[in-house]
């Protein structure tokens, strides 16, 4: 089977001022000496593409891409544009922390053509930000949004709910403050305690007590209702957009299409092969500097695994999966791939099936993570 060349590219910048207690991303702190070597390694890794690959969406994630100085940011943008020129009507997103954004960095991003900023705002409440070990303030979120607006860069806000001790009304206030800023897009995530993080250890020692499951459900449903009232389209489990502002880059992942990626811990999917680079920034650097592949894991997906993944990603979208287009995309019917499982979840009220389309119900949305293993 031949795969069309990817039309999306991801770049991972692992630097952060501090590792937040809940974070399990590929992050490195207190190693400013590695910033320049990393930029050089990214350029080297890109050069292994051999020929520039044009894309429709480009995404700088982290870590914190805006940890870089304005000069370093400019250099990174220029190198990326050299290897991944952008097509007409592109989407170029950069993740940022409200505390790092100043007018100089925004100016560089705007001049280079970035048109979307994903702001790790998380909350507007001081106690919650402190609890999450975030070092920005509500005022810095507002000024970051204002800076973007001045240069015409669109904004997506990330918000976390269900932090220990949080009440429903505190969460609603966070949502209302986010809505008042009129972002184009909002992503909301319930706080998770991942093995290996500080929060996981604190959970084991009962220093942190998670909110009750019932309250977390209420918080999620309240977000769905409030954001819908404010004109946001709930288009994926955790994502809400004003009309025309869905994340096209993330839609690449959810639709099972390929994507390029560079940087430590970055995952790419090219020609039906999924590869993930070494998560350790120092290992990544050493290997690239020695001219060795930075890939730590590689998996060639067979047709049925690809179809199962497409099924799970498709169900994450609120519009669900349309039977005919799924078969055209994967070569499998939903019935042969997962007919019994679908029936079971329809009977349990987790999925709705009108014969043409299968999608999560409101109840299914609340427990979706526990459904996926059944399909994979
Ligand atoms: S700022 Fe973001 S990426 Fe960096 S440590 Fe905190 S949660 Fe992780």
TrEMBL record:
<feature type="domain" description="Radical SAM core">
    <location>
        <begin position="1"/>
        <end position="233"/>
    </location>
</feature>
<dbReference type="Pfam" id="PF04055">
    <property type="entry name" value="Radical_SAM"/>
</dbReference>
<dbReference type="GO" id="GO:0004109">
    <property type="term" value="F:coproporphyrinogen oxidase activity"/>
</dbReference>
<dbReference type="InterPro" id="IPR058240">
    <property type="entry name" value="rSAM_sf"/>
</dbReference>
<keyword id="KW-0143">Chaperone</keyword>
<keyword id="KW-0349">Heme</keyword>
<keyword id="KW-0479">Metal-binding</keyword>
<dbReference type="Pfam" id="PF06969">
    <property type="entry name" value="HemN_C"/>
</dbReference>
<comment type="function">
    <text>Probably acts as a heme chaperone, transferring heme to an unknown acceptor. Binds one molecule of heme per monomer, possibly covalently. Binds 1 [4Fe-4S] cluster. The cluster is coordinated with 3 cysteines and an exchangeable S-adenosyl-L-methionine.</text>
</comment>
<keyword id="KW-0949">S-adenosyl-L-methionine</keyword>
<dbReference type="InterPro" id="IPR010723">
    <property type="entry name" value="HemN_C"/>
</dbReference>
<dbReference type="InterPro" id="IPR006638">
    <property type="entry name" value="Elp3/MiaA/NifB-like_rSAM"/>
</dbReference>
<keyword id="KW-0004">4Fe-4S</keyword>
<dbReference type="GO" id="GO:0046872">
    <property type="term" value="F:metal ion binding"/>
</dbReference>
<dbReference type="GO" id="GO:0005737">
    <property type="term" value="C:cytoplasm"/>
</dbReference>
<keyword id="KW-0411">Iron-sulfur</keyword>
<keyword id="KW-0408">Iron</keyword>
<protein>
    <recommendedName>
        <fullName>Heme chaperone HemW</fullName>
    </recommendedName>
</protein>
<keyword id="KW-0963">Cytoplasm</keyword>
<dbReference type="GO" id="GO:0006779">
    <property type="term" value="P:porphyrin-containing compound biosynthetic process"/>
</dbReference>
<dbReference type="GO" id="GO:0051539">
    <property type="term" value="F:4 iron, 4 sulfur cluster binding"/>
</dbReference>
<dbReference type="InterPro" id="IPR004559">
    <property type="entry name" value="HemW-like"/>
</dbReference>
<dbReference type="InterPro" id="IPR007197">
    <property type="entry name" value="rSAM"/>
</dbReference>
<dbReference type="InterPro" id="IPR013785">
    <property type="entry name" value="Aldolase_TIM"/>
</dbReference>
<keyword id="KW-0560">Oxidoreductase</keyword>
<dbReference type="InterPro" id="IPR034505">
    <property type="entry name" value="Coproporphyrinogen-III_oxidase"/>
</dbReference>
<comment type="similarity">
    <text>Belongs to the anaerobic coproporphyrinogen-III oxidase family. HemW subfamily.</text>
</comment>
